[in-house]
Amino acid sequence: MLFNTYQFALFFLIVYPLYLISGHKWQNRILLVSSYIFYGCWDWRFLSLLALTTAIDHYCAVKIYGTEDIRRRKFFLGISVCSNLTVLGFFKYFNFFASSLQDLLSVFGLHAEMRFLNIILPVGISFYTFQSLSYTIDVFRRNLKPAPRLQDFALFVSYFPQLVAGPIERATHLLPQVLAPRRISIDRFFEGCYLIFWGLFEKVYIADNLAKTADAVFSAPAPYNGIQVLLALYAFAFQIFCDFDGYSNMARGLGRIMGFDIMVNFNLPYFSTDPREFWQRWHISLSTWLKDYLYIPLGGNRRGELITYRNLALTMLIGGLWHGAAWTFVAWGAYHGMLLVLYRIFQPYLAKVPLIKSRLMNGAWTFVRAVFFFHLVCAGWLLFRAGSMAQAWDMLYAVLYNLRVTQYTPIPSYFWLMASSLSILLIVQLSQRARGDLMAVFKWPRALKTALYGIMFYLILFYASPGYHFIYFQF
Amino acid sequence: MVKKAFSIAVYIAVFCGTLEIMAQLDYYRIMAVDPPFETIQDKTDIGFKGVKYGVWQNIRLNRYGFHDFDIYLKEKKTHRIRIMCLGDSVTFGTFSAPYNWPRFLQSILRANKVDAEVINASMPGNTYTQLVDLFEKEYIGFRPDILLIYKDFRSYLGEPFKEKEGRWKRLLRKSYFIERFLDKEPEDPRARLALKRRKAKIKDSDCGIAKDAIPNYVKDLERLIRICRQNGIMLILSPFPNLTTEENKGAYMDYIYALVCYYPAVDPEQCLKSMTEFNDTTRKMAEANGIPYADITMGLEHNMEYFHDDCHLSPKGAWVVARNYAECIFNTLKDRRAGK
Lengths: 475, 340
Known about the structure:
The structure holds two protein chains of two kinds.
Chain A: H1 6-21, H2 24-40, H3 47-65, H4 70-107, H5 125-140, H6 150-158, H7 171-179, H8 186-218, H9 226-257, H10 275-281, H11 284-295, H12 305-323, H13 327-351, H14 359-385, H15 389-401, H16 411-435, H17 446-463
Helix pairs in contact in A: 1-2, 2-6, 3-4, 3-5, 3-6, 4-5, 6-7, 8-9, 8-16, 8-17, 9-14, 9-15, 9-16, 11-12, 12-13, 13-14, 14-15
Chain B: H1 2-33, E1 55-56, E2 59-60, E3 81-87, H2 89-92, H3 101-111, E4 116-120, H4 128-137, E5 146-150, H5 167-172, H6 176-182, H7 189-199, H8 213-230, E6 234-236, H9 253-260, H10 268-289, H11 315-337
Parallel strand pairs in B: 3-4, 3-5, 5-6
Antiparallel strand pairs in B: 1-2
Helix pairs in contact in B: 1-6, 3-11, 4-8, 7-9, 8-10
């Protein structure tokens, strides 16, 4: 059940009035049941997996909290971590590691008959296992009390707006909202509606139309034309952003009209001028998760420069692998790890560049840095989107050595689609950046805002591309 | 209260006005950036013609509005054999732009040391009658030595659909947005066909192949043969391309449904049956008039390796068609030299 389908609209139209007329206790019950129905609509068989993860983590959290014996606490934390990672590893990475091992053995002339599992990846498994895992770790660190009832914790794990594609919420943020009565004001309701509408627009108009451009090039065989690859890369860069940001915005909007406050997942990432800033703005819920539960426990930047580089590289490598069981994702993670390490090495020198006093020149310098860094990010997207490392190399080669316009370079069509998609996004994001507020458009003068809604409505009505899944569902 | 109602009315007006402005801008964008072939040049008596240096479905047209680079001039060099290819999207290469059969034909001829230039003068969507008209009135100026005509037979499926509209609907259509909205169609081809038939008030039982299709086709062929004879052009005839057979028609029925949406009164079953009749007519006409007949279906297999859909050629299919044409041209030229 995708957010941009009639089935979901019907589902929500049934759930929401029931939610509104109920008291707090019943609201939570309704949300829990509807979340399980929502998840069951993908594949009911995996409901047991979700329930099992929830039950184990809740049990472990209660046990961890109930004792001061550090060995016992570590034991239950170990159970929780192992169970989550086993589920994730089994469903997501088993075939990947098995095939990689087979390939490795074949390099040494050994032929091993590996058994592959014929299983489908449970949707959203990476999201809810990480969310659930953070809960037990926070309880272990005494940052959080365990949820008083299993059903409250179950709602925290399975809350349907963010269940299948995040944001990966922290228990310290979402659980108190589950436990306390929520207030829905008319302002928050309209803010929520705006977020849902904007998210829908980002997904069905911008992302799905850009997907056509990107898919056409990435699914074509080599040899590639450099111009087409470059356009496809730009298209994919904005497609993945709008796809994921669209989902996150819809999740936030749905949460808001139900009185929840779901965390911001993207904060204008393509305005970043360096890798550190990028990861503070891109998929914030994952990057902060990796920072808090992986990078800092590894030692962070406290144990000297070399260990810091190792920690950065390792964190990004695992971040890459989290996205999918393929070497292209590993390479993507390694690439971003390398960018972070290089930035850390060269950042002291960059800091020595004298500041220009002119505001205009400063703005121009920031713009140049943002454009340069955007292209570095796009190079990463090439690894991320390519079907194989060989394809990524072929495409990179085309960009470097075959950058020319031919008769069959369909520039006009690409141009219209991309320009129309991106111009609205750019206007909105510039407004958000200028005001330093992601809800800036919502605060525009009403007539202007209404005109923008008209444009968005028109484009959704006539140019929405049906049938595309959210990219992050596969993770 | 009145003030609030007034401001709400203003916002509704702004919203509706934006929709209308968007629809109008969108209309002009379509006209300017990617015009559908109906609007390339709207001369209904001779069909559609490509605009000079235009772009149609991402394919750039040359200075004559043809699908090709500027590699030839209208004025003909006397020693070079000029071959003109007439046709619709099948010849144009709509679904596999660079790999159209006229281009392959040129390569094959040059590889065999035949000094020839091949002009792809096809235009998507044109009917057989329109192509003959266009050739007679405009393309004859290119003075081709050989004329090849290869197109789909859908132009004989009947008159394109015209909706009967009431006064209110006509009035509403003054708004670009409402017009756009009214023309919005379902994705599913069968649902689209049903809707079109319902709109046109056509009963399913009334649908059948246009009765006068074969006589019209014969009339067009006769006219083309006459024009070619009068201008000393060697015409080579060939059958209509088609992937659909009695055996595999089920698999491609969706395509047919999608296509006949343009001709909603035509029954897909009937279309398939009439194919053999059309091709028999072509062969008989060629034999009766002593015109070379290139059986370009030789070596073409009825599967998706050779076709994109029921009639549009894949690159491989286009290569086979070009090879068959080339063989026919070699034989004809040999016969000519031998004085036959």
